[in-house]
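sorry to bug you again but im stuck and you know this stuff better than me. theres a chain ive been looking at and ive put its sequence and its fold in token form underneath. id like you to explain what the token line says about the fold, in plain words if possible. anything you notice is useful, everything is just below.
___
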Amino acid sequence: MPSRDAGRAPARPGEQSAPRPVGTVTRGTTGPDRLRRVERWLAGTQAHRLRAAADPLVVDLGYGARPVTVTDLQRWLRRVRADVRVVGLEVSPERVAAARAALAGVPGAPAFAVGGFELSVPGGGDPVLVRAFNVLRQYGEQEVAAAWELLRSRLAPGGLVVEGTCDELGRRSSWVALEAGGPVSLTLSLRLGGLERPSAVAERLPKVLIHRNVPGEGVHDLLRAADDAWARAAPEGTFGARQRWLATCRALRRDWPVLDGPARWRLGELTVAWAAVAPRGRAVGHDPEHDRGPGR
């Protein structure tokens, strides 16, 4: 991952150089409401950050071939703060041009610009919230730390980055919350209807954890504990999947640093402190080409 100043184009005499976007183009597949789980979480649990911000700037990084997730995010966050300023960033100039054309003339539409992990927002400004979903999925595990560091360095005071992954329909999702000082939590968010076991989210763990679902790693222990608690809570399934999930989360809270409560659990969420799942030991080897799943 290039440093913050890497990739700058040479300046002409008398001109300042413009930074090139840091990152590579994702596959770009997306759809309406695909990211509704993280949008709901941001609008609910992180509303205080947006309300307290001097500049309510929010960045949706790597939104893909269509601007729909940017408009979805803006709709959710306007419920918290009507003057929120949402900017969609893409390293692809063609995607930016297409987004601008699609929303030309729409009152109050989000802004779109060419940009990457350096978060180069038109007119400047430091975002209070950054969403980077299905972006790092195509990168190598060893590249995550540098991407996180660059994103965190661009936050406004009190800001937050959410970096994660979801499936194509947004039914299974997970994300890491990052503050300026580093990662603070991991959230799992699942559609409870038809859920066989919580570890079904394993294929949609963030890049930093997806290859860590092996014995000896915290995230593996968490998913195994969740599966065990889910199995023990089977009798609660008589009253519905939600009641079974509530019982599962209550059981997990006895041994794990669970940061949320029933109000969030009822939505199919579970958030734990990052320290409990942070990668341990040396990197797990893998073939990066094997998991180049669909980005946004």
